[in-house]
Specification:
Blueprint lengths: L1 H13 L1 E3 L7 E12 L14 H12 L6 H5 L6 H9 L12 H7 L1 H20 L1 H8 L5 H6 L1 E2 L5 E2 L1 H11 L7 E3 L15 E9 L2 E12 L3 H19 L3 E15 L3 H8 L8 E4 L13 E4 L14
């Protein structure tokens, strides 16, 4: 993972200080690429613990075409809670304490933080137990799963991009059109968060499947380790589905940034030494579309301890 650390160091030293949508502020650099040979181990960051189970359940959520956080909550995954929660507390049915700017306020005000936790707990329980509430406030709009599996056409029909690209890899491996796009300009306004990882392309050579991701925006400390592992896992899963070996994962990032309230955490991580990469275990007798989290396991993962940092919403 040396190249990931080198990117963190580069942005710390040479990044441009910029404002951002969340009001947090970032240090940013534009246009970077990392390459991971998946034959050399699974690229899960070892200089801090990354919760692999969350990566698995989120990716399977995308693959299933789901856009409601109910599936994630059932698997104890809270990656997307804040965006759905924001939708609820800004609605006309919410009657609890003022949650304006809850992300930033919870970092500075302990009394508010407790109120925020209480309201989030209420929200999560309602999503899990009240179908009508979940349908209204648990859904994040036309985010990744919708675009991958049910892209809207102008004639009212839909395109299952993921299933089609898998078929294309199997039947026309040398095609240069093995592409899935999550960036649908018409749907961006209806998404809780416009896709950061916008487009990926597969490439077949010498019996191996490689994948290149273009990511328009990358939170280097919190998000990018997830993205690396998620798309490396996707490459493994599609390779299995198509009877190929995994090749490379190539990660191309547009705006690569470190949030201003992550600087101390990044500096802590950069002082740590690298450990041996883990390996991946996948149930072989299931289609990619039928996999559940228990079918995917990581082996020999012995990272440094986790480093907590706030999520900018």
């Amino acid at each position: 993972m040396k190249q990931y650390h080198e990117l963190l160091e580069h942005v710390l030293k040479s990044g441009t200080e910029k404002s951002d949508r969340t009001g947090t502020g970032t240090f940013s650099s534009f246009g970077h690429q990392m390459r991971f040979n998946l034959q050399e181990g699974f690229p899960l960051v070892t200089t801090k613990k990354v919760p692999f189970k969350l990566i698995v359940s989120e990716l399977l959520w995308f693959i299933k075409g789901d856009t409601n956080i109910k599936y994630l909550l059932k698997h104890n995954n809270h990656i997307w809670d804040e965006w759905a929660f924001k939708k609820w507390v800004e609605s006309d049915v919410y009657n609890g304490p003022d949650m304006t700017d809850f992300g930033l306020r919870s970092l500075k005000d302990e009394e508010f933080k407790e109120m925020y936790k209480e309201q989030m707990n209420i929200f999560q329980k309602n999503v899990l137990n009240d179908e009508q509430f979940a349908n209204r406030f648990g859904d994040l709009g036309s985010v990744y799963g919708k675009q991958w599996r049910e892209w809207n056409k102008s004639n009212g029909e839909t395109i299952d991009q993921l299933r089609e690209v898998i078929s294309s890899i199997k039947h026309s491996p040398d095609s240069r059109r093995h592409i899935v796009s999550a960036w649908n300009p018409e749907d961006v306004p209806t998404m809780a968060l416009p896709p950061c990882h916008t487009l990926f392309q597969f490439y077949v050579a010498n019996g191996k499947l490689s994948c290149q991701l273009y990511q328009r925006s990358g939170d280097l400390f919190l998000g990018i380790p997830f993205n690396i592992a998620s798309y490396a896992l996707l490459t493994h899963l599609v390779a299995n589905e198509c009877g190929l070996e995994p090749g490379e994962f190539i990660h191309t990032i547009g705006d690569a940034h470190i949030y201003s309230n992550h600087i101390d955490q990044v500096q802590t991580q950069l002082k740590r030494d690298f450990k041996k990469l883990p390996s991946l275990s996948i149930t072989d007798d299931k289609s990619i579309f039928d996999l559940e989290p228990e079918d995917i396991k990581i082996k020999n993962y012995n990272p440094h301890p986790a480093i907590k940092a706030p999520v900018a919403v």
